Amino acid sequence: MNGSPGALPDVIWNDSVGSTNDEAQARVAREDCIPVWIAAAEQTCGKGRLGRHWVSKPGNLYASLIWPSDAEPRRLASLSLVAGLAVRDAVVMAGVTAPVQLKWPNDVLVGGKKVSGVLIETMDRAGSRVVIVGCGINLLHHPADTRWPATNISACGIIIEPRDMLEHLRSAMHTRLRQWADGAGLASIHADWMNAALGCGGRISVEGGKQGVFTGLNEDGALVLTLDDGSAWTHHAGDVEWLDQRGSS
Ligand code: BTN
Predict the structure, then answer these.
(1) Helices 79-93 & 162-180, crossing angle to 10 degrees?
(2) 73 lies in which domain range?
(3) Whose CA is nearest to atom 2 of ligand 1?
(4) Inter-residue contact 173 to 86 (CB < 8 Å)
(5) What percent of the chain has pLDDT over 70?
(6) 219 and 182 share a domain?
(7) How far is the CA of 46 from the centre of ligand 1 (A)?
(8) N or C: which end of the chain has fewer CB within 10 A?
């Protein structure tokens, strides 16, 4: 458990930082590990998953939550699903009415296009674990020529300021973290995630070349696919490509 159960973590706003995840890490390294959101109007070195760059010009939301956790290390992987669900909730709270889906592990899609990404990093401090949950939400613009097509919230006719979107996210993340409860609420998180998932039952290809049918999640939140020979394959990290449902359903 973290902080007082009813209190939302404070927010520290910056005009410009390299990366809000890096700012959060620097704060934790200074032994300041209380839950807090670090947000910025722009990032000059925004980080994406798998070592990619996250374009971070003003107008979109860039924010990272510092979250100390007593959860068993193997349960921490499921925080990725928790974060994706919270971002999805925030997008819905902003008024988006188009279908809002989750693409494993935590991309949020609006109308089949990526509107948000989450980068989770962990640190060890004085024998306990601190998780940095970095969230980027495209509010006003999105990059062109991405691996998966991208979009932004204004394309749905909704103009929202980063600070207002962070209020939705702060509230949604708090609710989802309480539901997760350091891993005790994993089953209901998995059920909610699967209800919003893109392409369950669809054919996918995972990094390394395996292809099969996306059938669900394992207890750590890893993606499970059924291969053509009927065996199950568990995919823990790396890209996933949808072979027959991209951008649909
Ligand atoms: C992805 O590749 O989909 C994840 C992108 C995560 C971007 C966010 S923006 C706020 C936080 N700070 C960063 O440098 N990255 C994350």
Answers:
(1) 140
(2) 10-195
(3) 48
(4) yes
(5) 96
(6) no
(7) 6
(8) N
